[in-house]
Amino acid sequence: MSTTKHDSHSRTIGDKPLRPESLMMGYGYRPELSEGSIKPPLFLTSTFVFNTAEEGKAFFELAYGLRKKDPGEEMGLIYSRLNNPDLEILEDRLTLWDGAAAAAVFESGMAAISTTLLTFLTPGDVILFSEPVYGGTDYLLKHILPRFGIRPVGVLANGGAAAFEQAVMDSTVRQHVRMIYIETPANPTNALVDIAACAELARRLSQPDRQVVVAVDNTFLGPLWQHPLQHGADIVIYSATKYIGGHSDLIAGVALGSKSFVNQIKGFRTILGTMASPMTGWMLLRSLETLKLRMTSQMKNARYVADFLADHPKIERVHYLGHLSPDSPEHALYRRQCVAPGSMISFELVGGEREAFRFLNALQLFRLAVSLGGTESLAEHPASMTHSDVDPEERIEMGITANMVRLSIGVEHPEDLIADLEQALAAV
Ligand SMILES: *Cc1c(COP(=O)(O)O)cnc(C)c1O
Description:
Elements: E1 12-13, E2 16-17, H1 20-23, H2 53-63, H3 85-98, E3 102-106, H4 109-120, E4 126-131, H5 135-144, E5 151-156, H6 160-167, H7 171-174, E6 177-183, H8 195-205, E7 213-217, E8 235-239, E9 253-257, H9 259-272, H10 278-289, H11 291-310, E10 315-319, H12 329-337, E11 344-349, H13 353-362, E12 367-368, E13 378-380, H14 392-397, E14 404-408, H15 414-426
Parallel strand pairs: 4-5, 4-6, 6-7, 7-8, 12-13
Antiparallel strand pairs: 1-2, 3-9, 8-9, 10-11, 11-14, 13-14
């Protein structure tokens, strides 16, 4: 009996394809390999026993790409830095939401991002990226990659597709660009970047020996509300710490894409040692079963909260994808690219940091914490917390002001959330 990949379950009934939420409870797992246990056990093991020396040799040949797979041959389990049943089942299930051919899971979102960038970039390359991006990504791009001879070129997300075209007018950028890295909607402003336009630009700039790769950090809307691969992206990245984990009790990341791209990323993951632990993998498998329930409830709650905030006299402006003006270009892009507005809201209070802090300190049900996507609602102050590392002038250009507060909406009762916001605004 083989102890290889448990890709056992069909994705259809007859010829009727099953939806991802129907497959989250069992896909990719064979109970008969684990004493009939209905759920995958936690495989806490560093290494796996080979039946014979010949089998060990064959597994290594595949792992190190020394030969092609024989027909029907599956890669065997070797060592938990290379593969582990919990991670393999998880990776199979994660591909379903995005319609990806393959997935790789990591012990953090930053591990997924850094491993992916190091896989494709070499000295002399340019990486074009949308701004703002997540604080850790911003630091990686501006302070760590340049030490390896990689040049980051930032493009403001609120400048639209024209800003990307403008950036590649510079021949030193155009000739050396190897990757376009985008985060959309942007954190914390919810500015949208046009994925299809970036993919088209990447195809135009690609040379036969040098494909320009488009990677999208889809943490804010995905995996339910935006599917970048369908719009031409090559790689989708998640901080699985957020919606995929969903309970604020783990740190993890994912990269998805074609088999060829993900195999290259996994090769780097093996050597950099950035894979997720079996425990993290097991917890994510449990989280995936309720992903749709949670994200749907959070999305509905966010609409109530955003409507309440938009009407409040102490609030200047609300940044919420469900409130884009119907005749704006952003709205047209939203309709093309997104499935639903998600559950991240930011807003500007009348006043400055003092008013924002008064509000944050008065909250009772919302927790004052960074991070997002968990079952509980959170509030934070981007300018002094998540984005405090960004140059103050650039911060203003990106629209991250002293009076801005960011909310992540959870699964509580929406009227309780609104009651909390109401009393905290009254305290300002
Ligand atoms: C949190 C986050 C990250 C980093 O993920 P970690 O799991 O904290 O390493 C990257 N991108 C976005 C958009 C995030 O919100």
